[in-house]
Amino acid sequence: MSASNTNNLARKPLASRGTINRQEARKEILLSLAIIFVPNLIFTAILLGLVSHYQVPPTYFELPGVPEPVVRESSAYLINFSATKLLTVASWTSTLSSLLPSFVMVLVSYPVACTLLDASKDKKTDNLPTPYQLSMLLGTLNGTFGSLWNWLMYLIIIADTWLHATTSTIQIWQAVPGIPSVSTFGRGFASGDCVTITETYTNPCSVSVGEHGPYFIYGAAESFATLANDSSQNSLLLFQYKGKSYALITDANIPQETSYQARTFAVTTQCTLIDDKCGLISGAASTVYNCSEEFSGYLPAAPDLINPSWALAGVRFFQDPGLSQTFPYRGGEFNFTSTNPVYMGAYGAILGWNTESSLYNSSGGLDLTRTQDLAFVLGCNVTAYDLEYVWYNGSVLVQQMVQSNGSVLRSFTAPFVSELANMMNLAQSAAGQSTPSGFVESWATGFSTMALGLSASSFSPRETIKEQVRVSTLVARVPKAPLAVLVFLTLLYAVIGILLAYIAVKAGTDETKSVQSRLSVAGLAAKCFEGEDICERPKKEIYELFAENEVGARDQRCPKVSIVASRRGGWKYELMEKDEQSNAVFVDLAGNKTAQTYIQPLHNDFGV
What we know:
The chain is an alpha+beta fold. Helices cover 35% and strands 24% of the residues. Strands 1, 2, 6, 7, 8, 11, 12, 13, 14, 15 and 17 form an eleven-stranded antiparallel beta sheet that branches. A four-stranded antiparallel beta sheet has the order 18-19-20-21, with no helix packed on it. Helix 5 runs parallel beside helix 13 and helix 11 (423-430) runs antiparallel to helix 12. It starts with a helix and ends in a 14-residue tail after the last strand. 33% of the residues are buried.
């Protein structure tokens, strides 16, 4: 080559390095940006789209007094979508983030290369890195553990783990929009005569007179089945309202998921022990009670009764709390009740009682006969109501409760007035309680259910006022905090990618691209182990900086990098290749070969 040509090359070093043009740099920048931005945006959009599309909408019951069935948490979303599938979509973002740091660092490398190039041109040594700082810079640009962008990736992985740990599958009840009232869960009397007392219709609907005179319970089979909770038509329910216990009658076949509003009848009975008031005497063979002139006797009572069990337990009805005014006859054999409420005296003797029972030993109103019978006398009031209620989730919500007229309660008390009810079973059931107050409450509640149950055959079904179905659904509960953090970090990654791409484009000149490609481990290795005529020439691709990639150089005679002991006791890199006799020789950057042997290191186990 002539001297003039050599001088021309020396005068135009930058021109010789301009083989990689600005368009190539921009292609690399746009490709890196697309890999960073597009997948992050797509995965985030899919995740938010699933949360938005499948979010459980608020549902409200049309029934009065019923709370919204889904408790809305301000800190979480309820998603009608598989929690496993949703978390799989969310995990795509953390998986993607682990693949992106190298592309982010491609964008970072352009402004870094531009800054380094400008500082080198201007000879600003304060702005140039030391060799150790250069090693850290190259490690950062290669996306190693210490890279800032790796730490952003770790934050995304932590947010994704947080979301996985706190997302769960729960069961909720949702209200289905209202449906026409087609069920017959309400109850009313089958005949209008049941609610009217006339001179010609004196018998209550719950009892009838046989051909030969004796009274019987109307539809006794259904009444007894209802009372035993074995009916396919009717069911008795207990509920509390304003501190009192009530019984109501409804349908026996109410689906669990159905809530409704309907009308029916309800009965409440309130009792107190009045043994002391009635002078009940313990220890005698026959226990005498004398509550009033109209309500007195002894236990067991005289056997000349319609129902033999009435001698051991029974009731009588009165118009006043003092249990002294009975009801007048309106024809027929019995003086049926005609008011609402009615007052009632109840008595009983439970045979074969154990004196060690806590019920007897508790203080209050219960006595033993000489034959070990547990005796009691109660003063009660019984009230019937026209009830409008809502049945929801196994609970009765009272909407309106109006005291019924006297003819309604007349039908409820008729089986007791005519002594057709067996009161002994009720007394024995109440005796299972451990305290007198528990005994009284159990007896009173049982009487209310008996009053409705023994009258069940006189009722007919009524359509519900409103109905609504609630369905059980398994949904994903997704906490808002980890979801928001994950989405924020993912979008932050994408936004930073856009900013870095803009900065890289501004810095991406032909010279910057050449310097940027050498700000890598490959560029540094080429500088250390390749000759100047190869590594300092302008190249389009980084692999072209190495002689081994030239045609005909990819064989075993190509120099290899070895680590050998140095004279100073440490270790050093050396190029090694085989000569014509296949002997290993060392090669310097000028191509000189030596057959020197390894130098034994000094005794320094930790020397570098």
